[in-house]
User: What shape does this take?
Amino acid sequence: MANLLQRFQEFIRKENLFQPKDKLLLTVSGGMDSVVLCELCYESGFEFAIAHCNFQLRGEESERDENFVKGLTEKYYKEILVKKFDTEKYAEKNKVSIQVAARELRYGWFHEIVNGEWSMGNSEKDSQTSILHSPFTIHHIATAHHLGDSIETLVMNFFKGTGIAGLHGILPKQGKIVRPLLFARKEELKEFAEQNNLQWVEDSSNESDKYSRNYFRHQVIPLIEKIYPKASDNLSGNINRFREVEILYQQSIAQHKKKLLEQKGNEVHIPVLKLKKTEPLKTIIYEIIKEYQFSSSQVDEVINLMESESGKYIQSSSHRIIKNRNWLIISTNNPEEALNIIIEEPIGSWQLSVGNVQFEILSTANYKLQTTNNVAQFDAHKIKFPLLLRKWKQGDYFYPLGLKKKKKLGRFFIDNKLSQTEKEKVWVMEMNGKIIWVVGMRIDERFKITPQTKEVLKINFNKS
Assistant: This one.
């Protein structure tokens, strides 16, 4: 069997992690895994610099780790960057766990370095950051994750319900991040470290089961191995199989998306009838909506939305999925960017690309009817919210005020001598699939004020 150094080099070539002349940023904690990574890169002749994060969570031990890593520069004659983080403050401010805070801070800083967004100028402004030696160009970030870390990730993701994307464990390469130790077990790394008389420091927090990863490492996986002694070997094999399965899975998802999704400006339009015929429906829906911050628990809501009336919608932190006739429309929550805007109640103002609309409810007791096209006046009791503001499209029709029959908007625009440019700027207001107002032009006859009207919904259109 080849020694660890040979397998290390072979794994890098096989996975095409980086080229021999590329310069790496090694993320070094001072623990055994990262010390082995330094030694293997040094013996392989790779160019690298060292980066160390001091999260200031373990008092003197954190300072000890920082000083130890700084000492590695004397051994390897490499540049080093060290940054101190107020991790607890970040976690509290962003309402995340300490583990999540440390990960976000760590990778945020690494990416600043590798993308050239961090320099000596930053260090002068930030006393938490020090740089030894001169600035340099980095091609890849290398972490010391090993096979055991990947197996733990697979098991944790299985129970978290991340789907097939979480079952491949830790990937060898993601963007500029490379993980050249994923082929090796922890025991192999330790044997290499002892044979080469390497020194390292132990992180006392690794022994605590209060962190979920440590609990799986110390409790769950050993318990499984009591029943299935080959469990880790089998999971290692599954990692490779799941990576290939995911490739096929993503190819299939891409084909479905190509057939279903229509990009219109910054919105995505999905034909409901075509979506209903897609199998497996729930999986396809989840893969479509997840990138817009929707969760797996909202898949059933999307299915219900397909059967609902126009104007209904569901929402994530950044987007809405709106039912509009035979379409589902994924639109941003920002009304200034959206081409489909939901109006939930008759108060306030809403910004369109051509101006804004303002709503108010008035009693008919002292109300005087206005004749300008920029003011829409409806019998308030005939209007049911939510309303949908959107750009007009071919096939739209309404019953223009003063007429008893419907007219397509295309013909209505010709009758009103609108130019092509003017037509492109027209918005309509829709209620449950019915256009109630061609904004700035005319309302629908069916919703006008009558002698029986008691309250008026007044909407002002102010052109920009």
Observations:
- DSSP finds 15 helices and 23 strands in the chain.
